[in-house]
Design goal:
324 residues, alpha/beta
Length: 324
């Protein structure tokens, strides 16, 4: 450890910009604390190792290449397998936009989710509106499938929030898609977003839209703003109310937070489907999915009916133990 006297001398020299000590004096000051120079034997050993180091490097490169090649072959075979399986299922279970065929595919299921949630992604931003058109078509297809199987609630999470800014357009495209499935007898449709007016049948905004028809589909549009930021805002509000003695700390509970978030954003979905190739929640509201069944298909990249159908079958077979 450096002595106190030498430390103070060095610091005074540093504060003066190196004018108190000469270079040789600074070297003498630090010399006791520097490692000893290598001996001639050590230098000879270093000079004898180039070939050994070369062989070691080549061995590392060869091992890395072998591992990388094996893993690449595995990934490619896995992708081919999943592509073939998805293609076969898409042929066997093609719905032909017929609600009767879709209902037939889920007829054997004991239960269906009352609230289905999906995560979609805006792709193709570089092609002007092509990415948005694809996204809206995916939303419309999912809405039609839910209406066919009898799922009353569909929440769609898209990180950027571009769907929330186009609620009338989304409602119109979903209605048009449902017309191609159901004809004139299509179910009633409600498209809404948190803290925004609902858009109900007839293209009229309603502050508290509701539907009494059993064949009703409610579509909720979510974005990253409805995720962790909402939970942070609620925490700040409860903290301020507690500091102002408007709310007792004993009254703050999981049930209270759950009720507030369910009222302001949404309740907990029964099933969450990921249509991307990887398991990425992309900022999805975290509070609502602590008991949600999450379904994902490896190497899938797109909204496909067979993935939707496999998710419903997986949900029907899942055991909900709820911590027991």
């Amino acid at each position: 450890m450096v002595a106190t006297k030498e430390t103070s001398v060095y610091r005074r020299d540093a504060s003066k910009g190196g004018q108190l000590l000469t270079p040789s004096e600074r070297e003498e000051l630090l010399k006791p604390y520097l490692p000893s120079p290598p001996t001639s034997k050590q230098l000879q050993d270093v000079q004898r190792k180039p070939f050994r180091d070369f062989l070691k490097t080549q061995l590392h490169v060869f091992t890395f290449t072998v591992i990388h090649t094996i893993f690449s072959i595995y990934i490619r075979l896995r992708q081919i397998y999943h592509a073939v399986v998805n293609r076969i299922l898409s042929i066997l279970y093609y719905h032909h936009r017929t609600p009767e065929l879709i209902r037939k595919d889920i007829r054997a299921l004991d239960r269906l989710p009352q609230h289905l949630s999906v995560i979609l992604e805006l792709r193709g931003e570089e092609f002007a509106g092509a990415g948005l058109d694809t996204l809206l078509d995916e939303v419309a297809e999912l809405s039609a499938w839910c209406a066919c199987v009898g799922i009353p609630m569909l929440s769609i999470y898209e990180k950027t929030g571009i769907l929330k800014s186009r609620i009338p357009t989304t409602h119109r495209i979903i209605s048009s898609k449902m017309h191609s499935y159901f004809g004139r007898s299509r179910p009633s449709l409600q498209v809404r977003a948190p803290h925004m007016p609902s858009f109900l049948n007839g293209d009229v905004y309603e502050e508290s839209a509701s539907a009494t028809s059993p064949d009703h589909l409610s579509v909720l549009l979510l974005s990253a703003d409805d995720g962790q930021s909402t939970l942070v805002d609620l925490t700040k509000t409860l903290t301020e109310m507690s500091q102002r003695d408007k709310l007792s700390t004993n009254d703050i509970s999981v049930e209270l937070i759950d009720a507030e978030i369910s009222e302001s954003i949404m309740g907990e979905p029964n099933l969450l489907i990921l249509f991307g190739p990887d398991v990425q929640l992309q900022g999805y509201p975290p509070w609502q999915i602590h008991l949600t069944e999450i379904f994902h298909v490896q190497d899938n990249n797109g909204v496909e009916y067979e993935v939707f159908l496999r998710a419903l079958h997986k949900f029907a077979k899942a055991q909900m133990r709820f911590g027991r």
